[in-house]
Design a protein that fits this description.
This protein has 539 residues and is an alpha/beta fold. 19% of the residues lie in helices and 26% in strands.
Length: 539
Amino acid sequence: MALDRVPPEVLQIIFDYLTKSEQLEKTQITRRWNQLSFRKTHLVLANAEQLIDEDILGRTTRGYSCFSIDFKFIKKYEEEEELRSRLAICANKFSLRSLNLYNIPTDTLISFIHEHRDWLRSVTELAITASNRVDLSNIEVKLELPKLRKFRWVFIDRSGSSFLPSVTLRAPQLKEIDLNCYDSTHPSVVLENATRLESLRVKGFKLISNVIAADSVMFLRIYEVDQPFEWCSEHIKFQRLGELSICACNVNIQSQKLLSTLANLQTLIIESEKTNPIDLGIIARALPQLKELRLSYAEWTYKSDVLSFPFLQIFDVHSSLRTQTTDDAPLSVNAPHLMVLKGTPKNIEQLEFTNFATIKTLIALGQYLNFRRPRLFGSVRNLYMEITCHVPDQLLVTESIHQFPNLTHLTVILHNKQSPVNLSGNLIAISFPNLRYLHLRYFDLDSDFMSGVLRSNTLSTLILEEGSLASGTIDVMRLEHFYMRNVKIPTSLDDFADFGTLLKLVRPRPRGNKYSTKILNETFIKSREEFLTDLQLCV
């Protein structure tokens, strides 16, 4: 049989018997073999309890390429020597692609770099969580990693010295970096020749000055900085920056105006409780090209008559609060391309769109929806609601969802339920003639729900979770997907004949039950409901 027809799992086992030099040679034979060589095989050399046995490490024929070491409990000299011998075996036997060093003292890290400099040259992903015991500010380390693509450097030890050694990293292939050294007295990592850097996450604006090739960065995340844009005007410019995330920063009016220097920014995310009120008028004027705006745990205000976002597609104000003003008029928004709207009912009611017909997906989190004008969002196809049931009235749930007659996807999740909440299956089938996907959680459904909802000619996916279901006629086999998890059902199921031999799978159990007609799990459900990142459902 030709090797190109051998399953990848079998080929991987065969390749594990090759030496390190042979591993490198096989990557040049075919594209398929090259892809197989990049499959990750992990090995934990040291964890919180023990070191890996040296004899087992020497005898193994597995082609490990990803290693992790936890230095938290390696404190004695003998333990360091034992780990050093195991690292020597790995350096001679395995080709390194990914390395995680947890709780490593910086002086130990310097020794590690000097001893395994050649082994590190092949690494593509490197994560270091370091602590510092003594003042090492006079130490300089230069490290060249020609294949490195992802780098994470975190300084965690607040009780030791904040004077870190200076590490000069030369990584021409570096694309993603995460730096967290906010407590250090001076920046500890200096990048050289990082011309391909695309993603940058930093804690502390001083670290940004070390990113020389900022023109290539397309994603930037800043957190816990008082003035996050002090670096933004003259000596550093992010010409290609497409997504900016600001977390726990003090974004004042001056900082909001400086956003205009980011000419290609399309996504702006502000997550902060201590920020000044975000003036949406300033944001609209500074970033007219914006396609996604998300405000979390931040207050927002406006001073213009009409807020104009010509290209905005996603608007998220689900956990933000509008600043209280004497004028309680709604905010007029001109967003002709808006497709996804996420927010609390209170925030949504304060928005007056010039064109509601473009909105295809609505995500409402909080209390019941009750718009002043019924059928306000007749264009909505996808509705995701998480309702806090302060008032034990199931009619409010029904009224909330029936404001959207053209739904194809409906998800309703109840919280703080004080009494049973039912939903009429017949009403669902009649009111939503185009409904294809229905997901209910924490509902108490009566015996007529299933027979009623299955009268729909379009429904193909039905998901029931964490509630109760009375007995009733079920013809779930006509559905493309039927998924039920932790739903209380009667012990006698005389009219559940369609389950046949699978009946025992849905009977009540102490730890809950689970049943699915096809392969359907929580991951699938979540992927169907991630409307903010998957716009295919909005078309």
